[in-house]
Amino acid sequence: MRFRFILLALFLSLALPASASESNEAEFQSWVKDFKKQAVEQGISKTTLDQAFEHVTLNQKVLDLDSRQPEFTRTFWQYFRSAVTEWRIAKGRYLYQKHRRLLDEVTKKYGVPGRFLVAFWGMETNFGGYTGNIPIIESLATLAFDPRRSEFFSKELIDALKILDQGHVTLDEMKGSWAGAMGQCQFMPSNYVRYAVDGDGDGKKDLWGSLPDVFFSAGNFLSTLGWQKQENWGREVSLPENFNYVLADGKTARPLAEWSKMGLKLADGRPLPKEDMQAKLILPSDYRGPAFLVFDNFKVIKRWNNSNNYALGVAHLADRIIGRPDLSKKAPKDDKALSKTQMKSIQERLNWLGYDAGKPDGIVGSQTRSALRAFQAERDLPADGYPSHRMLDMLLSTQK
After folding, report:
1. Model-level pTM greater than 0.85?
2. Which of 128, 57, 135, 47 is nearest to 92 (CA)?
3. What top-level class would CATH report for the domain 234-311?
4. Phi, psi (degrees; rounded to nearest 5) at 89
5. What pLDDT does residue 19 have?
6. Where are the domains of the chain?
7. What is the pLDDT of residue 2?
8. Cα separation values, 15 from 11, 130, 373, Å
9. Domain 22-58+132-182 - what CATH class?
């Protein structure tokens, strides 16, 4: 009886079609074969290609991470508390002093203060403590095979192969994030090719093991993006009573003198600097949270990672590293993230009430904020444009 069951199982296993994973792997290997031909045409050596792809398979974990959409988006305060921790501040201060001579050399060449280089280092990899453990060629090949962003990741894969071809790093060393970011400063391969620098003069651009290479590369990157060596990133400010929060759109630049005439001061009560500089006003949270006047260098920080929260994290960490004070505001007790479903409800309700929030997609954009500001302004509320549970409750209780 048992023998018959074994025969039946063997028959079924032979009769069943290949699993979806086996089919996908076959398609992936076919894609790799075609891609290698294209890579040869772009100058990648056959030896590098054979070594790089010898054990590469379709990485389902990478695809899952790429397609995963978080149900909740963290608030500014939730992000900030996890980014600028007391441990990270203390570690940053220690490492800033430890590597001060090297950092000063980078500042002299590129104009970027060392505190910012250390802050980026801390934000990206906890000062080199974790640079990622996924093989870069496999992650990029997987993402390039996926049709959603194939063109972008195919180019990144070619650049990663160029780095191997030029001997800057070995295949075993080339590990990083699931999305292909590498080294202690988490450069994508294209940025590695464009901006990496051999800071220690050993003939290699090693962003994993050489701090001179890491710091000189980061300085070169920020300098090329337009870092203004004579300017700071911005300052936390206090706003006058009955301030028009519509002005805090983060888009319109005004001279510091004009902001000063409106009643803005530094967070500690001192007047704004009397400098001929343009600044934009941003509120990362609602009207109860901190406000910042930001300069051109804030935009440069965002070109590393296009997020106000990230840029404020880097900037504030850089300030704390040299002993500047904490923010003047604390998170309110009702600080709580909205789910995508709740965010869609805000957008749908704004549209229903006649404020054009665009297509309800659960993603906060400038159109949603503008619509919410208009709703708030018509009801004499602080028009900060910040979606929250308070605003959701108010919208749901408002009739046309």
Report:
1. yes
2. 128
3. mainly alpha
4. -65, -50
5. 55
6. 22-58+132-182, 234-311, 340-396
7. 45
8. 6, 47, 63
9. mainly alpha
